Design the sequence.
């Protein structure tokens, strides 16, 4: 009897399991994602928003116990006030209503506006304010907020039917009322959170709170057409408003408070003419002054410079120094010329430092470029720190230091075209005298100042070495010379990157650097080192987690919280390092990806995410002991209704004799006695992402593992290790043995294996199908079939030459086409297209700023010339991958239909049979399946 019951239970279980749904494209819209989570100051509440597919966001607040405190539909950008007593968020119009209004061609100014939500966590009450354009709140105090209102047109009053326009007196010369708009400004409402009391300031253009001081600064164009505009400061402690500057039709820029609110800087353009070189003036107000004081204008600025209206302003931490920007005069146009008289020609020269295409993209930035200059608020002396010769700058010790670090890449800029990375010269500037001292030349990798500005430090890529320079005596110390503090897995013909820096010990006493696994404390003067963790024997990677956003030094007492990750098992977690005895202790760990640890400001409560391939990264709540872990969210309960998948690591040996690792994704109902179709998807190394969850969504460029596993596919993602000069052969030597090792296990249908990848992955696939027929179908996104023509191309998003990529970075050729012509030919699929017997689907878009679009065309045209099965997808005006949701969905439907046809024997869709004729573009998609008969 018991046996019969057990058999019945197994049968029922099998029936229930078999009834699980298979993911389809329509299911993308029911999947939720968590965004913008944060914890309140005392850790009592957690705020986050949930987005379902393309629908409206749903904002939620939960208590530390996990109970739902508040939720509001179509809301986003939620945040707690500094004291944690209120939550503020934006309420958006319903997306469906916006779509319908757009369908009706509704004008932009008639569209519904955002609202501001204010939720009182003590009283559990909600206040909503309609038509809010923007809002701000203080960073480090909480009594007030301020927001700008969109213009709300009053309803027209009913008029007597006997009135006509003709009856209006003809001599009525009443001025039109001042209109709320971009040029005039918007109405600013200042609200006291505790009482709800509000004050309105009319026609405000800009506003800002002091970080700590209870003050608000704003600029206005005047309360009406006859009033002057000006800059004002409202002090909340005495409710007094101070007029700092007024002028008719003046323009104000870069309002900037000191931290306490006792000082305010801004730039004024009071000239009402249309002169092209604007006579900007620099003003500073200090508490106690009746008005702001002008410190610099067009006549007193250094020769060849002018006050910039675009350069940001800021005060030093101790508020004794004020930094502002000086700009060079603009290039003045001849405004008398008409279009027929203007010559539009690009002149490119071989020896100009910056390639013309880069210059073109930087035009707007160059127009706004400024050079940091110091105003000493005690002596009123002005010292220019950054210049056209040394334009880039770092101000030390939160602006308090007497030294600044400036740098330039000008002598080496042209080399960037083929080297990729740019060397720089570094110079220290005395902020009082302007005296300079060069501390490093031809330095690749970048230098920075230590927190107290006692040292300059950086990683020199050419030497693969961390260095520190004592700025008091210019002593240059190579801290890691001869030691492996650089990427041990580096496999391209370039200088390896470092593993990074954790930070500095108190008062710049030491710098904490990472090697592959551990944290090391170095004395910046002597180079003496001390290992703080011991992860190398177990291949466990430890990294410091900053829990205080204002932290300048790593704590010198108590414990550090570290992340940990095991390279062998891919398990992760958190650990503590006791600074007193050096004890390293695992706090929580497991076969998951733990990430995004955030601590409450006033308590040890933390939130973080915990995920695996099968588990969504839910919000977890605990304290820094991690002894009690609480899951606060259950984001996608519907997942249990769907056939999902599992992820595991597999190992094999490459044809070069290297032991490799990869991810294998199997369907949830996997049966080792069955034969499964398989899709191989890879890029470079991905196995560290074993425990990452993949929410079903229409990806931009690659298959969604959850989606395809649910539909009965096995997915294989192999790691690739490259040999300089032979990237295509390296991919073959790593990937193909991995595929054959899986075939040998018996559950892969060797006759139904596909391969898919994008960009660098697309190139490797184009190469592989010239070398093997093991794949029945391939999809290659944005591939490079011709390394010779691609070498001479431009990366249009940045304007950079593509040469450096082939000589030194990802393409890994190691030199120019005239140095290694055979390498370029051997690694270019175009020269072996005739050997391809695998059908190929290509996706390459005409606005691609990474890989030239003509590369995809070259690939397709060669296949077409040979009449080999090939399809080409071009999403018009889309970049390296489709961004518009309708295009992403389309790409995923076509890719799924393509692989189902070849790997599952599904019917062919119409678009594969006859394409989509140009006359039908945007009308008929051709998704319909043909009758197999």
Sequence:
């Amino acid at each position: 009897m018991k046996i019969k019951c057990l058999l019945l239970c197994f049968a029922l279980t099998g029936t229930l399991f078999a009834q699980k749904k298979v993911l389809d494209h329509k299911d993308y819209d029911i999947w939720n994602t968590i965004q913008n989570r944060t914890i309140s100051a005392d850790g009592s509440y957690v705020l986050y928003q949930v987005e379902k597919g393309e629908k409206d966001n749903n904002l939620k607040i939960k208590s530390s116990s996990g109970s739902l405190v508040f939720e509001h539909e179509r809301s986003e950008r939620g945040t707690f006030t500094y004291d944690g007593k209120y939550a503020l968020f934006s309420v958006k119009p319903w997306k469906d209503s916006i779509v319908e209004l757009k369908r009706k061609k509704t004008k932009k100014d008639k569209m519904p506006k955002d609202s501001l939500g204010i939720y009182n966590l003590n009283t559990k009450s909600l206040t909503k304010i309609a038509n809010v354009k923007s809002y701000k709140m203080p960073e480090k105090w909480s009594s007030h907020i301020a927001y700008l209102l969109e213009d709300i047109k009053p309803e027209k009053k009913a008029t007597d039917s006997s009135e006509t326009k003709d009856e209006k007196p003809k001599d009525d010369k009443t001025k039109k009322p001042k209109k709320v708009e971009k040029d005039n400004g918007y109405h600013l409402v200042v609200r006291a959170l505790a009482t709800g009391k509000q004050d309105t300031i009319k026609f405000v253009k800009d506003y800002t709170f002091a970080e700590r001081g209870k003050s608000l600064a704003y600029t206005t164009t005047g309360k009406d057409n006859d009033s002057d505009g000006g800059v004002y400061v409202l002090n909340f402690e005495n409710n007094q408003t101070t007029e700092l500057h007024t002028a008719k039709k003046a323009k104000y820029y870069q309002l900037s408070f000191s931290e306490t609110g006792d000082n305010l800087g801004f730039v004024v353009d009071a000239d009402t003419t249309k002169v092209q070189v604007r006579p900007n003036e620099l003003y500073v107000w200090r508490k106690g002054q009746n008005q702001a004081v002008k410190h610099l204008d067009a006549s007193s600025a250094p020769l060849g410079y002018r006050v910039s209206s675009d350069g940001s302003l800021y005060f030093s931490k101790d508020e004794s120094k004020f930094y502002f920007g000086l700009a060079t005069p603009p290039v003045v146009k001849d405004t008398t010329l008409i279009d027929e008289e203007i010559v539009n020609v690009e002149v490119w020269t071989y020896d100009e430092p910056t390639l013309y295409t880069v210059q073109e993209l930087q035009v707007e930035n160059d127009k706004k470029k400024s050079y940091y200059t110091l105003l000493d608020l005690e002596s009123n002396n002005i010292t220019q720190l950054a210049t056209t010769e040394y334009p880039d700058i770092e101000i030390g010790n939160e602006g308090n230091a007497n030294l600044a670090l400036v740098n330039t890449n000008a002598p080496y800029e042209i080399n960037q075209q083929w080297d990729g990375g740019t060397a720089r010269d570094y110079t220290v500037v005395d902020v009082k005298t302007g005296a300079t001292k060069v501390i490093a030349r031809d330095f690749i990798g970048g230098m920075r100042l230590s927190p107290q500005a006692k040292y300059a430090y950086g990683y020199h890529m050419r030497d693969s070495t961390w260095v520190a320079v004592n700025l008091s005596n210019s002593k240059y110390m190579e801290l890691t010379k001869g030691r492996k503090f650089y990427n041990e897995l580096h496999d391209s013909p370039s200088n390896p990157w470092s593993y990074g820096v954790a930070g500095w010990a108190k008062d710049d006493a030491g710098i904490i650097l990472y090697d592959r696994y551990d944290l090391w404390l170095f004395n910046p003067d002597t180079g003496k080192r001390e290992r703080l963790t011991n992860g190398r024997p177990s291949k466990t990677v430890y990294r410091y987690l900053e829990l205080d956003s204002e932290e300048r030094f790593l704590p010198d007492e108590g414990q550090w919280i570290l992340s940990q990750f095991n390279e062998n098992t891919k398990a992760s977690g958190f650990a503590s390092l006791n600074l007193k005895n050096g004890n390293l202790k695992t706090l929580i760990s497991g076969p998951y990806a733990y990430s995004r640890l955030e601590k409450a400001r006033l308590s040890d409560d933390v939130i973080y995410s915990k995920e695996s391939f099968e588990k969504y990264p839910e919000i977890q709540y605990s304290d820094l002991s991690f002894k009690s872990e609480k899951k606060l969210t259950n984001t996608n309960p519907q997942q249990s209704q769907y056939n999902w998948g599992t992820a595991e690591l597999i190992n094999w040996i490459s044809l070069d004799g290297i032991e490799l690792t990869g991810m294998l994704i199997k369907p949830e109902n996997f049966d080792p006695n069955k034969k499964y179709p398989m899709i191989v998807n890879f890029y470079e190394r991905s196995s560290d992402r074993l425990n990452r969850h993949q929410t079903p969504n229409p990806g931009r460029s690659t298959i969604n593992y959850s989606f395809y596993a649910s539909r009965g596919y096995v997915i294989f993602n192999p790691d690739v290790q490259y040999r300089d000069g032979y990237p295509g052969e390296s991919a073959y030597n790593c990937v193909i043995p991995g595929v054959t090792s899986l075939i040998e296990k018996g559950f892969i249908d060797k006759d139904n294996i596909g391969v898919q990848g994008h960009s660098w992955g697309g190139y490797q696939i184009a190469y592989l199908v010239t070398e093997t027929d093991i794949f029945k179908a391939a999809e290659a996104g944005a591939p490079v079939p011709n390394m010779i023509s691609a070498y001479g191309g431009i990366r249009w998003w940045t304007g950079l030459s593509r040469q450096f990529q082939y000589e030194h970075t990802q393409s890994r050729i190691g030199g120019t086409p005239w140095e290694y012509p055979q390498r370029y030919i051997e690694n270019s699929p175009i020269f072996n297209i005739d050997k391809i017997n695998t059908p190929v689907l290509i996706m390459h878009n005409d606005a691609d700023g990474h890989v030239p679009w003509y590369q995809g065309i070259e690939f397709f045209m060669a296949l077409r010339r040979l009449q080999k099965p090939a399809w080409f997808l071009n999403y018009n005006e889309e970049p390296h991958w489709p961004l518009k949701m309708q295009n992403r969905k389309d790409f995923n439907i076509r890719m799924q239909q393509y692989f189902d046809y070849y790997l599952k024997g599904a019917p062919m869709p119409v678009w594969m049979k006859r394409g989509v004729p140009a006359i039908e573009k945007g009308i008929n998609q051709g998704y319909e399946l043909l009758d197999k008969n």
